[in-house]
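BUG: 3D viewer hangs when loading the predicted structure for this chain

Environment: internal workstation, default settings.
Expected: structure renders.
Actual: progress bar stalls at 90%.

Input used:
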Amino acid sequence: MDRMSPPVTVLGMHRSGISLVSACLEAAGLFLGEVNTSAPSCPWPKGWRCGG
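Structure tokens produced before the viewer hung:
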């Protein structure tokens, strides 16, 4: 595929299920970016998402 996909924005208030929606979108095939697992004292075991 030579064309870039249009950007997707996931918005929501804190504690409203944004992480769940993002995880579902990723499971459905949406690329959310690279995972940075080398972040110091990362509270989330899956790592931080990197924007580039």
